[in-house]
Amino acid sequence: NAGVTQTPKFQVLKTGQSMTLQCAQDMNHNSMYWYRQDPGMGLRLIYYSASEGTTDKGEVPNGYNVSRLNKREFSLRLESAAPSQTSVYFCASSHENKGTQYFGPGTRLLVL
Amino acid sequence: AQRVTQPEKLLSVFKGAPVELKCNYSYSGSPELFWYVQYSRQRLQLLLRHISRESIKGFTADLNKGETSFHLKKPFAQEEDSAMYYCALSDDSNYQLIWGAGTKLIIKP
Asked: What is the DSSP code string of B26-40?
């Protein structure tokens, strides 16, 4: 039981490049989330998916897109990376909307 | 507006001393509150949630609706408690957690 997994662990991009961050969970959770973590700002929700087939914007969705591929997988795409997107990205999942969220190990992204 | 405030960015205490990490919230509904912890180079994990009323790793937190607070306490700090601590509030209206900015706790030997 791996819990929540994320790939890659670390990525360096040039401004304007695109990439997709992958997230998968094996806990049969309904809800999945993407956050970014920046110093002094805590965690900010980018997008979430309450259940398979649905996605909704969080606090900071601009510059990102998501896909809930199936119940297990929830990907985050940066179409044209900007230096302001340099951050640590965390994926999380929960069984129910008010339940405990379980986090992945994070992806460190550096945009030059 | 819903908000979670952790007034201390950094808290440094000596080993064996009591620890209190402050969390205040602003929420119009019935709050459900959490404390998450992130140890160095590890993923965020749940420390405790107020509805379970458990004590985890010696930490406790009591919801004070009058003061709108959910402070995290431990009577005797240990070096392994050094970590980043986040307070979070579950928003009834959607599927989101509202997060505080976090407090970095350093336990000095």
From this structure: E-SS--EEEEEEE-T
